[in-house]
Amino acid sequence: MESTRLQKIARLLQKELSEIFRGETAKTTGTLITVSAVRVSPDLSVARAYLSIFPSEQASEILDNINRSAGSIRYALGTRVRYQLRRIPELSFFIDDSLDYIEHIDSLLASDHTGKPADDVTTE
Question: Which domains does the chain have, with CATH numbers?
Answer without folding.
Answer: 4-97 (3.30.300.20)
